[in-house]
Q: What sequence folds into this?
């Protein structure tokens, strides 16, 4: 019983450590998940300072963290991301981009000039050969190769 009494006597230090650890992890991830866990730990600390037993502190902290994650985190993420640039970038910007086959495109090789001016090695998306000069659209990017499909406009 002395061991459990010792844990309950010094539980506030454990709550402070959890709060600090969760806040440091949150600073590295910036996803609000660990921030919500630290808020739950704050309520666990408050429950300890009020004098509740350790099992009640853990239940309060876990329930509060779950409620914060499900009800407070989504609106915070929405507000954080409302000013993002909606324009696609990097590989996502190339998907469905049109182009012209510079050489015959097969399942193994080919070359395409995209409408943004880039020239890419290319492969046919469905394995059907695409003739030189045909209009194509990018289906996906696999490394440095554009997987293309023919388009009829």
A:
């Amino acid at each position: 019983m002395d061991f459990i009494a010792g844990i309950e006597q010094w539980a506030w230090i454990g709550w402070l450590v959890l709060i600090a650890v969760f806040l440091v992890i949150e600073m590295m991830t910036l996803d609000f998940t660990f921030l919500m866990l630290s808020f739950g730990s704050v309520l666990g600390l408050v429950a300890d300072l009020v004098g509740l037993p350790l099992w009640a502190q853990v239940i309060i902290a876990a329930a509060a963290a779950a409620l914060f994650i499900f009800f407070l985190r989504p609106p915070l993420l929405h507000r954080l991301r409302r000013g993002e640039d909606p324009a696609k970038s990097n590989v996502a910007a190339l998907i469905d981009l049109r182009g012209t086959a510079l050489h015959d495109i097969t399942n193994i090789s080919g070359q395409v000039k995209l409408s943004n001016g880039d020239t890419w090695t290319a492969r046919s998306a469905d394995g059907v050969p695409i003739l030189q000069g045909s209009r194509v659209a990018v289906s996906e990017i696999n490394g440095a190769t554009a997987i293309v499909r023919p388009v009829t406009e």
About this structure: The chain has two domains: 2-81, 90-150. Helices lie at 2-9, 11-29, 33-50, 54-81. The chain has four helices and five strands. Residues 54-81 form the longest helix (28 residues).
